[in-house]
Amino acid sequence: MSLTELLSIAEAEALIAQHMPSFGSERIRLDRAAGRILRQAVHAEHDHPPFDRVMMDGIAVRWSASLPREFTLAGSQMAGMSMQTLADATGCIEVTTGAMLPIGCDCVIPVEQLRRDSAHYQLIDGYQPSRGQFIHARASDCVAGTRLLEAGMRIGAPEAALLAANGLASVEVGKTPSIAIVSTGDELVDVGSSLGEGQIRRSNDIAIATALRLHGFDRIALEHIADDVAATQDRLTRLLGEHDVLILSGGVSMGQRDYVPAALDALGVRRVFHRIAQRPGKPMWFGIGPRQQAVFALPGNPVSALVCAIRYVKPALLVSLGMKPAPTEVVRLEAEVDTNPMLTCFVPAYVQTDAQGRSVARPVPARTSGDFSALPHTHGVVQLPPGNARVPAGSVVEFHRW
Amino acid sequence: MSLTELLSIAEAEALIAQHMPSFGSERIRLDRAAGRILRQAVHAEHDHPPFDRVMMDGIAVRWSASLPREFTLAGSQMAGMSMQTLADATGCIEVTTGAMLPIGCDCVIPVEQLRRDSAHYQLIDGYQPSRGQFIHARASDCVAGTRLLEAGMRIGAPEAALLAANGLASVEVGKTPSIAIVSTGDELVDVGSSLGEGQIRRSNDIAIATALRLHGFDRIALEHIADDVAATQDRLTRLLGEHDVLILSGGVSMGQRDYVPAALDALGVRRVFHRIAQRPGKPMWFGIGPRQQAVFALPGNPVSALVCAIRYVKPALLVSLGMKPAPTEVVRLEAEVDTNPMLTCFVPAYVQTDAQGRSVARPVPARTSGDFSALPHTHGVVQLPPGNARVPAGSVVEFHRW
Questions:
Q1: Region B313-334 average pLDDT
Q2: Is the pLDDT of residue A256 over 70?
Q3: pLDDT in tens, A33-56
């Protein structure tokens, strides 16, 4: 297959988006919802604040142009108490932050501006309060029924605050799919085993799982399949029965032991595409199973697998949870990068904001797609479009975080 | 207390840093380590790659200036097999990606450049292989013993890959502290209860918990204390016995019901500071308990509490886990902002990268420190230093994410 017949990045993304299933939604407790994707709109349960709310500790009085300098203590209105009434313009009611403003009052004078003398409060010399001060008026933030949150938002601290303030002890969120991450290859041994001749440790599965766990995917199984056609078929049959998403690494190139595409085909997983005009990650394969399982088969090289996982798999899974896609991050290249004019190239990069507030990327090219020893000192990959053999310093390019 | 006597942001940060305890470390399974902070260095267990590694599916041959165009199949070397030997320069060994390079070979020819004819492989017309091609040489990524990861790194996908590749089935990480998040105030009711007159729902606790959970803090209890001096004392006694960190909200101003500072003092929690020259969040209090518990007492207003939590509490906790602090993010202001020349002001902002790769912040000022209804459409707060009544558009300022 010549390079010009391969899919572009945009074509691959569009095909994935067209075919990805939804994983539905579920109702979970609010205190378990950090990082989950909201699948409901949220409206104000009541006015915010629900009453004229005192903003300072002090006294509440009835303002006038001829406001007295001394007030007789006529009661107290603490936060959480039902509403008191001030009968008299020469009187005052002690108030605390968060209390309802007492009936008959329209001015709060903070304790720092007061002297207390048994049953009286005096304004300190020179202090001139104004009408309406330190009152957070009912409904001034929003009126009951205002739409506050939309489906598709990720639940961080501000969203959690609004959910709680509006009485949502449980919340409808995107249901996380059951994901199997499957490495293939006879040369791969478990992290806990000792290495024999010709062996290396499995690392793609844990790397991809870590990337997904950091985005809230919590139902992940790690599996390994040896290079054997019958074993591949058997295990894939079981995994397709048990999971919503399969992410395979290895076995998708053109070698005689690349059993994965044929095995998937035999199991009714319909190929949507195979190969993208990119480096690394050209052999990536994507298909849809008979029960709408999403199957991503990534190359086995560590850098290739990770790039495909963060560039295609993670965003597709987040959209399937219901997340509204965030704008793509862009960065300025600090140095020129040699690239392949026929392929989109992904190059690991260290990113920092400079003194002008620009995100600047220092490319850290991996020597081979098997070399991942330098990746921990990078933040992700810059995406360099095809067309030129060299992308100059100062170019603004897409950036995708690990 | 006049504004000039308050602590600056930098002074408050330095005092917190001086006093924060370490929470120690623990050994956990690698597949549970996403987002945790590494507390050990990691060195290469062996050379990477550990052998001369084949990078393509195809054949391995012995290169020479007079390389034949046809090779006799003399064996196969699959990934994971122990090393084969090529006896003869006219022969070839079938190889798969990830296999050891057979002895006697120094060139890999990819399957795309070959035609197979029973027991022979022929180079396709015009193809000229070069010596050493498609071989990922032993130790070319790094030699055994190379330092690959340092203590203080957060475990994301690339770090997890290296941990796995070097045989660390378990890993030493910062132990997360046991944290109690405590709201105070009679006006506050639980998210699941119905609202009475003068009441609002608790939301600071869940907001702070959500912010911390998203950074890997998983041992969090939510508590509520009514405005009662004896209850405050009793509950704080128990909480100081059970937790490493207390984060209180409310009860730290100057009102007659602000029992928190006195109660903490009576329990032997030594005040490190009270009040910072900032808006919102001026009344923030920080102290250290008799068992080195860190106690943060934040103001009760939702915006104030959240700003203090993300600006001081979260970074301090991450450093105490052993995390190497990341450089502070900076952004350009898209619009001018009115500010208070005596105080550092935090203003919620929406941040996006523009076409030049600059992070641009659109300020979304909250009308009051009680108004959090607009926060979900922002990404964090810009930090505007004191000194001017207005910060002009185009200024580059610190940005702190929710």
A1: 95
A2: no
A3: 999 999 999 999 999 999 999 999
Nearest residue in B to A149, CA atom: B376
The encoded tokens of residue B112 equal 């795309």
Longest Cα–Cα distance in chain A: 96
Interchain pair A376, B96: CB under 8 A: no
pLDDT tens digit sequence for B328-371 = 999 999 999 999 999 999 999 999 988 888 999 999 987 776 68
Mutation choice for A interface testing from B5, B93, B201, B351 by most A CBs within 10 A:
B201
- In this structure, what DSSP letter does residue A154 have? B
Look up the CATH architecture of domain B53-136.
Beta Complex (2.170)
What pLDDT score was predicted for residue B365? 84
Interface contact flag, B161 A49, Cβ < 8 Å: no
Indicate the CATH number of A28-47+144-174 among 1.10.10.10, 3.90.105.10, 2.40.50.100, 3.30.70.270: 3.90.105.10
Pairing of strands A396-401, A380-384: antiparallel
**B169-B170-B173 Cα angle (round to 5):** 145
- The dihedrals phi and psi of A263, each to the nearest 5 degrees, come to -65, -40
Cα–Cα dist A165/B191, whole Å: 7
Residue span(s) of chain A under CATH 2.170.190.11 come to: 53-136
Tell me: the pLDDT tens digits for B127-139? 999 999 999 999 9
CA distances for A311 relative to A334, A370, B127, B389, angstroms: 22, 18, 34, 44
CA–CA separation, B24 vs B245, rounded Å?
Answer: 14
Distance CA A43, CA B294 (A): 37
**Averaged pLDDT of chain A:** 94
Question: Using CA atoms, how far apart are residues B249 and B232, in angstroms rounded to an integer?
Answer: 13
Query: HSE-up of B396 (CA within 13 Å, CB side)?
Result: 12
Q: Sort out which chain A residues have CB atoms less than 8 A from B210's CB and list them.
A: 33-34, 155-157, 159-160
The proportion of chain A whose per-residue pLDDT surpasses 70, expressed as a percent, equals: 97
